[in-house]
Amino acid sequence: MSVIDKIRNAKGTLFTFELLPPLKGHSIEKVYSTIDRLIEFSPAYINFTSHRNEATFRERPDGLLEKRVVRKRPGTIALAAAVKYKYNIPVVPHLLCGGFTKEETENVLIEMNFLGIDDVLALRGDPQKGSRTFIPEKDGHTHTFELVKQIVNMNNGRYLEESLEDTAPTSFCIGVAGYPEKHFEAPNRQVDLENLKHKVDSGAAYIVTQMFFDNKKFFRFRDECRCIGIDVPIIAGIKPVSALNDINLLPQTFHIDMPHELVLALQKCQSDKDAREVGIEWAVMQSKELIKEGVPGIHYYTLGRSDNVARIVKAAF
After folding, report:
1. 180 SS3 class
2. Distance between CA 144 and CA 136 in Å, rounded?
3. How many domains does the chain have?
4. Most exposed of 79, 84, 178, 201 (fewest Cβ within 10 Å)?
């Protein structure tokens, strides 16, 4: 059952969460232990992030720097498939424009289709580290709506090589990202909403929001979406605060605001443990209000840590 079918058939708000692939050379067992802690709460599906290549520099014996291109977290599709069949649960791999050509994207989608993975979250991805602007790969996609259209074409049996005959259509359910506080590159919220509508009009079936800490901003975003004709389900993305430094790190990294009440509570904390407790309480409050308002789903960004999310879900759902 696809994500959109799960949403349509749900009798209440769905619980879902996101995991990162292990760093290269690390074991899958940590991923399994995270899932084991949350599986009792019957997640509707699990998302797995994807990561582009990164440029690193290593000093050579002669003192010069040597550039190397590496992918620090490979294995998104394999990890998703392993989890799908170990836990008998739908999985949603992320698919990026950044770092991939159209042909590489098609090949990944073919692999997913063969593995029985029919859900995907289509994202542009961040600019390469060290760059202020997003630069696509040669023969890659510049915008998410282009990636969505490629997936839709495959659903209609149209592949990049037009001479192929008797092609088999795929059946991918496509999700895209939305930004309650505006994507940082958009000049204003109206343009950002128009960009989101373009993604939906291209074939996206649902939206998952970036993290937010003020529910009023989510409700404003939802209402603005409806006003411009975006009528697909909108899933709320929640990231529990887990450390003292989150008060600086999260706003800077994700270009979001924190409510002053939350900031004051975190400023009183003496340790990461104290901040984690504040984060749990705040996320429980957010979740309860979102459920009361009838959101179709709440998606938790775990960053691989599950004990706090388990407490939040137990208290809120």
Report:
1. coil
2. 11
3. 1
4. 201
How far out from the chain centre does Cα 249 lie?
Answer: 18
DSSP 250-299: HHHHH-----HHHHHHHHT--SHHHHHHHHHHHHHHHHHHHHHTT-SEEE
**Tokens 């550039």 map to which residue?**
67
Residue 68's SS3 state is strand
| DSSP per-residue codes, 27-59 | -THHHHHHHHHHGGG--S-EEE-----EEEEEE
Q: What angle do CA 55, 56, 62 make, to 5 degrees?
A: 130
- Cβ atoms of 101 and 139 closer than 8 Å: yes
Question: In angstroms, rounded to a whole number, what is the distance separating the alpha carbons of residues 53 and 66?
Answer: 16
> What is the pTM (predicted TM-score) of this model?
0.93
Calpha distance 290→81 (Å, rounded) = 31
Helix residue ranges per DSSP H, 58-181: 76-87, 102-114, 144-155
Kindly tell me the sign of the dihedral angle through the C-alpha atoms of 304, 305, 310, 311.
Answer: negative
For residues 223 and 22, the answer to whether their CB atoms sit within 8 Å is: no
